[in-house]
Design a protein that fits this description.
Layout: E1 22-24, E2 30-34, E3 44-45, E4 52-53, E5 58-61, E6 70-71, E7 76-85, E8 91-99, H1 120-129, H2 142-145, E9 154-159, H3 168-175, H4 177-191, E10 195-201, H5 205-214, E11 221-226, H6 235-243, E12 258-262, H7 263-274, E13 281-287, E14 295-300, H8 305-311, E15 321-324, E16 331-332, E17 346-350, H9 368-372, H10 379-388, H11 391-396, H12 407-411, H13 418-435
């Protein structure tokens, strides 16, 4: 029986690349490294124009604990440190490295000889120094998440990958099962949990079978089949499906005894300990009906979207929309000069964009947004509160709990762009809640 949660919706998954093995791509001539690629303290460049860098060398970092350094994925010369567009369309300080194609590695890249001899703090610093963050898209520094304020019971590894088109995690599970299970063991030791679960949607039967074979003699890790439904991979929904526990408003998973880590993040933890290699590459799905040859690529960080599109045979015709991430929660791009960062799981190019939203169409009160909301909210009321800039109403209808999955906009027959309105207003409401004031209509 497949586990699940209340709400959500089974939407077409368009997993065009699920059966395609990962292809290794070499680096490009120029690599662009946004200095800050995580949620946390901003980083500062450790290199300047003219410096020579090597593969795995730390090129940006911060003194704060809640930060994750950036490492070069190539060897070569720092050509510039300048503003360049990132995946959300903002120009941010970026280190530009001219690739010398030699791929000389940094001298300090060494595996941990005896993991059992490390203290918890030392293990956390190995993860921090490797620049590991939530690679499923959240981008929160992993070492912070693995340092919960209280003892937890369960580690949940997220292999759901519920967004349409994306298959990077699916391929990781199929092609690196031993590494994932070993990484899960490392994290279980670090957290001191009694049980580790790996949650995978039912439409990835081959991944479920592969990992179950890998853990057949390991009682500490269990593979859980999840119902194929969006957003099954959202943190709170995953916890509910597997443990039956609800994370209360304003609380974190650790408050209900759980830590959730993405499956690709687990692989990178394994690589940091066993190989001494930081986050310098990732698997990216390049897909969509505008792409000639959809593929899963393993690329060094810093290559551009245009470079990957070229390697995928280019566009069949000019796309109406190019998205980094999935079509439900990803970011539409205005340029293909955007570089691959740590959280870039996919590039989706579509010949036809979704129908235009109609702000003047009245709500027909069909209730689809309410019945499908995975958080049990009333998006119709939240949308009105956002349009009216009514903070009292937004907080009353619990806008803070919105995970911005986009199902309300997706299911709305009146073509109301609820997600955009709610997401834009949510920071204002949260700020008012922290101040203890709801005035500001």
């Amino acid at each position: 029986m497949a586990l699940t949660f209340k709400g959500g919706l089974h939407i077409p998954d368009f997993k065009l690349t699920a059966k395609l093995p990962v292809i290794d791509l070499p680096g490009d001539k120029l690599h662009y490294f946004p200095i800050t690629q995580h949620k946390g303290a901003p980083l500062k460049a450790l290199v300047k124009t003219g410096d020579h860098v090597r593969v795995g060398q730390k090129i940006a970092d911060a003194e704060e604990f809640v930060a994750a350094p950036v490492h070069s994925s190539v060897s070569g010369t720092v050509k510039d440190v300048c503003p360049h567009v990132n995946s959300i369309g903002i120009k941010t300080e970026t280190i530009v490295v001219e690739n010398d194609m030699k791929y000389e590695t940094a001298e300090n890249l060494r595996p941990v000889e005896d993991i059992s001899a490390l203290t918890t703090r030392e293990m956390l610093w190995v993860i921090r120094d490797a620049g590991i963050i939530g690679l499923g898209g959240a981008g929160f520094p992993t070492h912070v998440k693995l340092n919960p304020p209280k003892q937890v019971e369960f580690l949940i590894i997220n292999g759901a990958e519920c967004e349409p088109y994306i298959t990077s995690d699916h391929r990781r599970m199929l092609e690196n099962p031993e590494e994932i299970i070993d990484g899960a063991g490392i994290l279980s030791k670090l957290l001191g949990v009694k049980k580790c679960y790996i949650g995978i949607e039912a439409n990835k039967r081959d991944a479920i079978d592969t990992l179950r074979r890998e853990v057949r003699f390991n009682s500490g890790i269990e593979i859980m089949k999840l119902k194929t439904k969006y957003p099954q991979g959202a943190e709170k929904q995953l916890i509910k499906a597997i443990t039956g526990r609800n994370v209360p408003t304003g609380k974190i998973p650790a408050d209900v005894g759980v830590v959730v880590i993405n499956v690709d993040t687990v692989y990178n933890v394994w690589r940091a300990f066993r190989k001494g290699i930081p986050v310098i590459d990732r698997i990216v799905t390049v897909s969509g009906d505008a792409v000639n040859k959809p593929a899963n690529f393993r690329v060094p960080l810093g290559v551009t979207v245009s470079y990957m599109i070229e390697k995928a045979g280019g566009f069949k015709a000019p796309p109406q929309k190019v998205i980094i991430g999935g079509p439900m929660m990803g970011f539409a791009q205005y340029t293909t000069d955007t570089p691959v960062a740590k959280t870039t799981s996919a590039v989706i190019a579509l010949l036809e964009a979704q129908p235009t939203y109609d702000p003047d169409m009245p709500c027909i009160r069909c209730g689809k947004c309410v019945s499908n909301c995975p958080m049990g909210l009333m998006p119709n009321h939240l949308n009105k509160a956002a349009l009216d800039r009514d903070i009292d109403a937004a907080l009353r209808f619990n806008i803070i709990e919105c995970i911005e999955c986009g199902l309300c906009s997706y299911t709305c027959p009146a073509k109301k762009n609820m997600l955009q309105n709610i997401a834009a207003f949510k920071p204002m409401a949260m700020k008012a809640a922290r101040r203890g004031s709801t005035s500001g209509k």
